[in-house]
Amino acid sequence: MTLSDAVLILAALLVVTIGIGASLRWRQNRPRHQDPSEIVQPQRLGAAALGERATLLQFSTEMCARCPGVHRTLSAIADNNDGVLHLDVDLTHRPDIAQHFHVLQTPTTLIVDGDGVVQTRFGGTPRRDVIELELARVTAVRAPV
Q: Which of 67, 64, 83, 10 is nearest to 1 (CA)?
């Protein structure tokens, strides 16, 4: 193998690595719609009940630097919307919940409708306007006709 071949291979690997990293970063804060077969049981999470219209379910850990900011944002959104509850679940000592919900990073936020069905998932720090838009979409589906 010549030096120029080695440089081309390294350059190709660098381009692929940067492409994968950019793709993952782009998807990180975007909402992803979920399979509606998952029903959240509030008792498993240590809560008495879910929100009447929706629940902003946040998964965090003790060492998460971004989680307090997300907590403040989600609490403010829930306070401004009737029937919406913010529930923060600390996964530090609950690997069973992290495994069940496939949480690979914190914060992870789920928007759960009033029936307990996971509608949307955010990995990382979601923007407030995106959360509000998704919450409006989820609660509009449940609005009486």
A: 10
| pTM to 2 decimal places | 0.75
Q: Cis omega (within 30 of 0) on the bond before 68?
A: no
| pLDDT-derived band at 29, boundaries 50, 70, 90 | low
Confidence of residue 144 (pLDDT cuts 50, 70, 90): low
Beta strands in 3-144 (DSSP E): 32-33, 54-60, 84-90, 108-113, 118-123
Task: Report the C-alpha gap between 119 and 36 in whole angstroms.
Answer: 7
pLDDT tens readout for residues 41-92: 888 888 889 999 999 999 999 999 999 999 999 999 999 999 999 999 999 9
Neighbour tally for 65: CB within 10 Å: 8
Q: What are phi and psi of 61, to 5 degrees?
A: -135, 165
Asked whether the beta carbons of 21 and 49 are under 8 A apart, the reply is no
HSE-up of 18 (CA within 13 Å, CB side)? 6
